[in-house]
User: Fold this.
Amino acid sequence: MSASSTDNDYFEALYRDNDDPWAMRSRWYERRKRALLLACLPREHYGSIFEPGCATGETSLALAPRCDYLLSYDMNERAVGLTRGRLEGIPYAHVRQGALPGSWPRESFDLIVLNELGYYLSASDLAQVIQQSLASLNPGGQLVACHWRAPIDGVPLSAEQVHEHLDAQLGMHKTVCHVEADFLMEVWCEQGNSVAELDGLR
Assistant:
């Protein structure tokens, strides 16, 4: 593993002659994981969602019907272009190029989605992203994180390490913890209400 955050050269190589390097559209694994992520969200609808590291835009496209404002970010120019293409025609969906933690947006959000992003960051950069997330979440805000558990050559952190950092530094209620052999998916909420409570059933 590397001590520093993964740079854009890594992603340039992945996107070279390939507009879907993780096969997010074609693999059942990826489609199922997206469906689980959407199902894990405690709220049916959000005012604003931020997805940094949006890659090819498949998760952004799935998140769009669940909010009034969507901001997708990626450091890679090709990823930004692909995501813009996926979100074309959705007026409240916006895509920007930016590398974290240096170019964190100024907006505030009801939900932040860290999907397959954390292990590309060094521990210090991840800590900064966590603090930026806390500062930009609206009252009652939520954060969902999902990460592949198998080893990835050259990345600074493992999925387990990313989620340990999130759990230790967010200081929020963990309301969902979904663990499979392949990935971890967890949701942290400022308020610890269950979905039934949020829906007025308890």
In short: Residues 8-198 form a domain with the Rossmann fold fold (CATH 3.40.50.150). The chain has a mean pLDDT of 93.
